[in-house]
Write a structure and sequence with these properties.
Shape: elongated
Distance between the termini: 38 Å
Number of helices: 7
Strand order of the largest sheet: 2-1-3-11-4
Number of strands: 11
Structural class: alpha/beta
Helix content: 25-40%
Order of helices and strands: HEHEHEEEEHEHEHEEEH
Length: about 220
């Protein structure tokens, strides 16, 4: 019976790698759907960076990754975009925010950027700096941090301004205020996708990736 359940995808074990962005909306919905459709499946969660997930997917250490794209992963992989989000500015409480609650690219450039390391999210890193240049500003990276909560801690500590996906507004982080960027139309989007190995037969990873997660 256990073998039949595994064959139907209603039992077994699924190891999911995920970036912190997936924790606040995508993952809770995925877990609810997975428990509804396949309550016998044991889901193991591993919070990891993009680079760590890419290596783990190639090594077979995780079955599926919830990652920021674009990203290079070796081997035959499938991909489904789950979320496309715009960037907002995370600024220290004492930051000089105009009355309309929006900050400018010039203000961000002057304060310096708090960024994820270039090796972690190279496309996002390059896209932000390119948008700053297009707006006529030479931005400098004042501080790097490889986790979102660490980024926010650096902002609260006055290290600079971070550009983060708009879901970050759901967090209440002492010492940090979230603002729209008035002239940030050229800023890149912040994309979240599911990436998993392509197999000749359906897997639990296929089931998980194709859950109704309200991709947008």
């Amino acid at each position: 019976q256990r073998a039949r359940e595994i064959g139907r995808g209603s039992a077994g074990q699924l190891t999911v790698g995920l970036v912190s962005s997936a924790l606040f909306d995508t993952l809770p919905r995925a877990l609810r759907e997975m428990r509804r459709l396949a309550p016998g499946v044991r889901v193991i969660l591993r919070e990891m960076s993009n680079a760590e997930q890419a290596e783990a997917l190639q090594a077979g250490e995780i079955d599926i990754g919830l990652m920021h794209t674009p990203v290079a992963v070796g081997g035959r992989m499938r991909e489904r975009q789950l979320l496309r989000d715009r960037l907002v500015a995370a600024v220290p409480d004492e930051f000089d925010v105009p009355g309309d609650g929006q900050v400018s690219m010039a203000q961000i450039a002057q304060a310096g950027l708090v960024m994820y390391p270039q090796s972690q999210l190279p496309s996002l890193y390059a896209g932000i700096l390119d948008a700053m240049r297009k707006a006529g500003h030479d931005a400098h990276v004042a501080q790097e941090a490889n986790r979102t909560l660490t980024v926010l801690s650096c902002v609260a500590g006055g290290c600079g301004v971070a550009l983060l996906p708009s879901w970050i507004r759901s967090m209440d982080f002492r010492g940090v205020r979230f603002c729209d960027v008035r002239d940030g139309q050229a800023l890149p989007s912040f994309d979240l996708s599911a990436i998993w190995p392509a197999r000749s037969v359906p897997t639990l990873a296929d089931m998980f990736a194709n859950l109704d997660l309200g991709a947008r």
